Amino acid sequence: MLERAIVMLDFETTGLSPAMGDRITEVAALRIVGGEVVERYVSLVNCNARIPSFITGLTGITQDMVDNAPPAHRVVPELLDFIGSDALSAHNASFDEKFLLAETARLGLAARHQSLVCSLKLARRVFPRLPSYKLGQLSGQLGIRFRSAAHRAEADAEVAAQVLIHIGKHIGSTYGIAAVDPALLVSVNRLAAAKVHQFLLKQQP
After folding, report:
1. Residues of 110-124 as b/e, b for ≥16 C-beta within 10 angstroms?
2. Cβ contacts of residue 22 below 8 Å, gap of 6+?
3. Which residue from 142, 143, 72 is spatially nearest to 109, judged by alpha carbons?
4. Do the Cβ atoms of 56 and 183 come closer than 8 Å?
5. Stated pTM of the model
6. Which of 102, 114, 125, 175 has its CA 20 to 30 A from that of 94?
7. Contact 108/174 with Cβ under 8 angstroms?
8. Which of the residues 91, 113, 151, 166 is marked catalytic?
9. Can you list the alpha helix ranges (DSSP code H) found in 44-192?
10. How many domains does the chain have?
11. Is residue 1 part of a domain?
12. In a domain, 185, yes or no
């Protein structure tokens, strides 16, 4: 299951919009192969940005922590090298990808991931009647527990990775599909929820 590598990404940030000047404060990237997390890249990030008090209250990330963290011009290239050309995933993936693209553009670099899979959209399509798709509530509904505090990059990425693995295993076992790969997940992402069942039936060997 998920034998082709896919990297689960999570950023903590100073706000919601890089276009409004918000920056990353922490990153976690977890490589999933064969239904397991096999490698990870985790770092706080110094973007010379002010950490709003509400962000510290939400994440526990303080100004002192980021001021003493590795600089963005070191972390971002390392992150890009870690991701390489593998497929990329995140929970609410458009949010994390826009920060990734903004930070790479600042340095004159380019991301090389081949595709983007949103675990939030996948959950909505594969489990269409759940009461919530926020990561904390969704993971609880699927029996997946946070091992450490939520709203830190590694903890959130770890749980999102387990959500993605759970979805991959569900698709594989329900529809008898041995190779649940990123391309299949991208296709499911693009469908309306009502069309997913028939689409997956057609993928059966």
Report:
1. ebebeebbbbbbbbb
2. 13, 14, 15, 16, 49, 99
3. 72
4. no
5. 0.96
6. 175
7. no
8. 151
9. 53-59, 63-67, 72-83, 93-106, 119-126, 135-141, 153-175, 182-189
10. 1
11. no
12. yes
Residue 91 domain-assigned (yes or no) = yes
For the question of residue 151 being annotated catalytic, the response is yes
Cβ count near 72 (within 10 Å): 20
pLDDT digits (tens, 9 = 90+) for 80-108: 999 999 999 999 999 999 999 999 999 99
Condensed to tens digits (0 to 9), the pLDDT of residues 12-40 reads 999 999 999 999 999 999 999 999 999 99
Answer whether residue 116 is part of any domain.
yes
What range defines the domain where residue 148 resides? Answer: 6-202
Closest CA to 122 of 31, 6, 39: 6
Q: Answer whether 95's CB lies under 8 Å from 187's CB.
A: no
Q: 85: domain CATH number?
A: 3.30.420.10
For the segment 54-77, the average pLDDT, to the nearest whole number, is 97
At position 132, the amino acid (one-letter code) is: S
With left for phi above 0 and alpha for psi between -120 and 50, is residue 43 left, alpha or beta? beta
Cα 169 to Cα 200: distance, rounded to the nearest angstrom:
13
